[in-house]
Specification:
It is built from three helices and no strands. The protein is an all-alpha fold. The protein has one domain.
Length: 77
């Protein structure tokens, strides 16, 4: 099926999942790699307080804050 045909089915509100090969799907730039980072205790405590306040894991706080900072840097060039 050509892309414009798929678009028409999608725009008509049809379920297009039968046309997709989900096993081959991937998200560009979303491959994850584990890294180890050492933080001072005061920083971990602060991260944990913020994580509790937001109701999310510490790792989520770190990821969001890093992503925000990297996006700011990208904008300022």
């Amino acid at each position: 099926m050509k892309a414009n045909e798929l678009d028409k089915h999608f725009e008509m509100g049809e379920d297009i999942s039968k046309y997709l090969e989900v096993s081959k799907a991937h998200r560009p730039n979303q491959v994850q790699r584990r890294v180890n980072v050492d933080f001072p205790i005061w920083m971990i405590r602060s991260l944990d307080r913020e994580a509790r306040r937001l109701g999310v894991p510490r790792q989520s706080v770190i990821k969001v804050w890093l992503a925000e900072r990297l996006n700011e840097m990208k904008k300022t060039g």
